[in-house]
Specification:
It is an enzyme of class 2 (transferase). It comes from Nonomuraea cypriaca. One of its GO terms (molecular function) is DNA-directed DNA polymerase activity. The structure is a single chain. With 355 residues, the protein is of the alpha+beta class. The chain has 3 domains: 166 residues, Reverse transcriptase/Diguanylate cyclase domain (Alpha-Beta Plaits); 54 residues, Orthogonal Bundle (DNA polymerase, domain 1); 97 residues, Dna Ligase, domain 1. It is built from 13 helices and 14 strands. It has a 5-stranded mixed β-sheet. Helix 4 packs across helix 5 and helix 10 packs across helix 11. It is globular and about 70 Å long. The structure holds a DNA duplex (18 and 18 nucleotides).
Length: 355
Amino acid sequence: MSTKDWILHLDLDQFIAAVELLRHPELRGKPVVVGGSGDPTQPRTVAATATYEAREHGIHSGMPLRTALRRCPDAIFLPSDPPAYEAASERVMNILHTFPVRVEIWGWDEAFLGATTDDPETLAADLQHAVHNHTGLTCSVGIGDNKHQAKLASGFAKPAGIHRLTSDNWAETMNHRPTQALWGIGARTSKKLADLGLHTVAQLAAADPRHLAAHFGPTNGPWYRYLALGKGEAEIVTTPWIARGHSRETTFPHDLTDPADITHHVAALARQVAHDAGEAGRQVTRVTVKVRFTPFLTRTRQSKLPATTTDPDTIAQAAVTILHRFDLNRPIRLLGVAVEYTPPENDQPTLVTLE
DNA sequence: TCTGGGGTCCTAGGACCC
DNA sequence: TCTGGGGTCCTAGGACCC
């Protein structure tokens, strides 16, 4: 065996549910659903995750809590607790940094690792043992030549396993699968591809990139074929991610119709976002207001600020001005405020390139 | 199953300028 | 004005992911 560069994708199994079960060991083996404030009678609240026992009752993440309660009246409902997940995630990422690997964190429960070794499976098993010994959490590890392969491999490795998907076994593993199996092709694109006669990964890989470009745009079209060929990014970026923007939104349990009420909520969301931007030390350059009308029609309006700022009054004023560009004569179920940040100066991320 | 919240990137059309 | 072509910025929406 020869030493070679690998990309590993580490994915914590059932992360939110696993953290909750560590905090409430007495609930192990019971149907548990996590989401919202933990009140399953609250309308317009959905499950963030559900344990395997809850899944046996047909409950899954994204399902309204009221539906979950109907399907399993004995289920235990817990409120979502982001700070707890943040803390658990940080402990895991700290463990990864003790290994001779380059670490790129991808959200709470995932990381890509760059490693040079002749035995990636042993490295993967060592990582799993370290994470489990120090946190009680299990994870799946995918091994690939690039992030796309490693990401799909960790999916095949679930739960708690190790799987290798490289250019050597890509075709035999992926060619017969639907295009939606690729990371970055969802239900919509998969359907459009099928309408063009492209149902499988093999068919997409053999498609004419110009034909794809004509249907999906100059970047996306050829990119889909690239994915079908098993290609993908192979750079591990070890510097912390710099957010492009930030947002806050609220779905109201009951519709809003009073204009003063609507304005008040938008101003409050804008102040919150401005406060967050200030805490993060970032300047705001654009403000977007999002309105979701009943039953489910979503519209956005945005404007670029005359000057960058983090001042809550200025941002709230801008958001309220934008709000009044909407037709507000229909009941509203969601309001949101998003901002775009200016890129921080001296922003030169260090890239560690594989291959 | 009456459908969360927080992100990222791409596309297309119009305005505007040379 | 019976008007070419390209570049850039701004805005709204779509798709995807966790």
